[in-house]
């Protein structure tokens, strides 16, 4: 006859052994993974770029970007040129201005519509007509509120760049963008050097 208590005790012992085995395996895997991660980090920090007698150590998280006949090291995820980032900022300011102007115009339109709807409500002949006008009024006010929020969201930025000294700065940044692009194009193109002295010719 099988002893049920003994059988259950054996089952519990087997479960405990399996749990300890899984824990040990997990700890070993975690230790191995952490060691692998550290080794990968060391490899990234020890990458060397060689050019002539110069030697550059690339920090972890940085990547090398080669263009034309020169080397450039930039942070990973920040490979945009200064001109591109400046253009993005100017586009952002212009986008805020367009959004602000469009929303501001809509708010004014809905303010004018309000007077029309009030008069429609005044002259409505029955309940059905009043209900239609009330529905249009609700839609108008909700649309106005949505655009009013857009106006308020952009207003500080727009007012800031409307000040004359800041407007001048923005115009100078647009001019700077053109010069910056030309400079970057020059650096990215293949450059040649024309010797000033002809070989074999000496001064008298």
Describe the model.
The chain has 204 residues and is mainly alpha-helical. It folds into two domains: 37-79, no CATH class; 82-188. The chain contains four helices and four strands. The chain has helices at 4-45, 82-123, 127-162, 164-188, and strands at 48-51, 54-57, 62-67, 70-75. The chain has a two-stranded antiparallel sheet. It has a two-stranded antiparallel ribbon with strand order 3-4. A hairpin with a 2-residue loop joins strand 1 (48-51) and strand 2 (54-57). Helix 2 packs antiparallel against helix 3 (127-162) and helix 2 (82-123) crosses helix 4 (164-188). The protein is flat and about 100 Å long. The model is unreliable at 43-73 (pLDDT under 50).
Summarize the structure.
The chain is mainly α and 204 residues long. The protein contains four helices and four strands; from the N terminus they run αββββααα. It has two domains: 37-79, no CATH class; 82-188.
Give the SSE layout:
Elements: H1 4-45, E1 48-51, E2 54-57, E3 62-67, E4 70-75, H2 82-123, H3 127-162, H4 164-188
Antiparallel strand pairs: 1-2, 3-4
């Amino acid at each position: 006859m099988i002893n049920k208590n003994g059988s259950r005790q054996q089952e519990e012992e087997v479960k405990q052994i399996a749990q300890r085995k899984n824990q040990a395996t997990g700890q070993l895997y975690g230790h191995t993974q952490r060691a692998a991660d550290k080794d990968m980090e060391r490899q990234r920090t020890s990458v060397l770029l060689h050019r002539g007698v110069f030697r550059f150590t690339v920090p972890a998280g940085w990547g090398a970007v080669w263009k034309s006949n020169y080397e450039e090291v930039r942070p990973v995820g920040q490979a945009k040129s200064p001109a591109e980032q400046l253009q993005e900022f100017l586009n952002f300011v212009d986008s805020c201005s367009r959004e602000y102007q469009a929303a501001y115009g809509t708010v004014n339109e809905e303010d004018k519509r309000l007077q029309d709807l009030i008069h429609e409500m005044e002259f409505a002949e029955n309940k059905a007509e009043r209900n239609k006008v009330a529905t249009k009024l609700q839609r108008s006010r909700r649309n106005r509120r949505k655009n009013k929020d857009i106006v308020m969201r952009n207003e500080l930025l727009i007012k800031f760049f409307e000040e004359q000294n800041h407007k001048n700065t923005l115009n100078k940044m647009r001019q700077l963008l053109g010069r910056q692009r030309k400079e970057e194009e020059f650096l990215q193109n293949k450059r040649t050097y024309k010797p000033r002295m002809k070989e074999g010719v000496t001064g008298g």
